[in-house]
């Protein structure tokens, strides 16, 4: 079944699932059901996926945290908030303790709803449950606070990562640099961008453009040149057109004053 799913042959996989038990004498287990639930969610067939979970129960196999998390993520993705919330509550009511992935799905939903403080409270609950947040968790929380205009809180969360044994990855750096540029905090954006680039983690071209323009605007030409030096040494290199834009920003800064 997994081979069919990897080939995205969903109809064939579903047929095997429906006919397999009787036609081939295959005993369906929790892995089989969870595989089908994931497939149906990927197809956007959320109602059928939910029914597959009900059939799982009827077969004497209690849905597990993987079942609930898969369905919850899909319903949230398609904007079915009430069902997603219901699955989150049902999962815990049935004695399925949320995993790191479950919490990240729930936090993603809260962030999308601009409920960053509630998402941050969930992180505290994760620690209380003995679940260590990962880079995805922190990136979501940081992004959520920036989106709410709580820039200082976003920076506090970023600063707390090291103390909690979680080093920022490239996505966290990208989030920080992007939103700091939006906030016009170019000094901190420069320091983090430089640190990121020295690890060979480069933000998007648009973010680099914004940072270079911002540094030039606040007369931090030297810092802009440092970023440009790192940009020039990137492997794989930027395209000729992208490099031309970067250089034009620096040259305009020199002639504009």
From TrEMBL:
The protein's matches in Pfam families, at most eight in alphabetical order, are given as:
PPR_2
**What keywords are assigned to this protein?**
Repeat, Transit peptide
Q: Which GO terms describe its biological process?
A: chloroplast-nucleus signaling pathway; mitochondria-nucleus signaling pathway
PPR repeat boundaries on the chain = 29-63, 64-98, 134-168, 169-203
GO cellular component annotations of the record: chloroplast
- InterPro entries assigned: PPR_rpt, TPR-like_helical_dom_sf
NCBIfam families on file:
PPR
Instruction: Tell me which family the UniProt entry assigns to this protein.
Output: Belongs to the PPR family. P subfamily.
Q: What is this protein called?
A: Pentatricopeptide repeat-containing protein
């Amino acid at each position: 079944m997994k081979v069919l799913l990897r080939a995205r042959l969903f109809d064939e996989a579903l047929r095997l699932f429906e006919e397999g038990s009787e036609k081939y004498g295959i005993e369906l287990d929790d892995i089989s059901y969870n595989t089908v639930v994931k497939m149906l969610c990927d197809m956007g067939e959320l109602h059928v996926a939910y029914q597959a979970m009900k059939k799982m129960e009827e077969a004497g196999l209690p849905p597990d945290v993987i079942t609930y998390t898969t369905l919850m993520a899909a319903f949230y993705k398609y904007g079915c908030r009430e069902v997603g919330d219901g699955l989150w509550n049902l999962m815990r009511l049935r004695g399925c303790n949320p995993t790191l992935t479950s919490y990240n799905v729930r936090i993603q939903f809260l962030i999308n709803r601009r409920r960053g403080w509630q998402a941050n409270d969930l992180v505290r609950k994760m620690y209380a449950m003995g679940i260590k947040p990962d880079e995805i968790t922190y990136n979501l929380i940081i992004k959520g606070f920036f989106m709410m205009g709580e820039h200082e809180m976003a920076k506090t969360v970023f600063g707390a990562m090291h103390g909690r044994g979680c080093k920022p990855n490239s996505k966290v750096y990208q989030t920080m640099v992007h939103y700091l540029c939006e906030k016009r905090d170019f000094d901190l954006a420069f320091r983090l961008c430089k640190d990121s680039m020295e690890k060979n983690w480069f933000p998007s071209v648009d973010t680099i453009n914004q940072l270079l323009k911002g540094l030039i605007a606040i007369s931090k030409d030297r810092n802009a040149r440092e970023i440009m030096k790192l940009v020039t040494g990137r492997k794989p290199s930027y395209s000729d057109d992208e490099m031309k834009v970067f250089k034009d920003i620096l040259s305009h800064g020199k002639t504009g004053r």
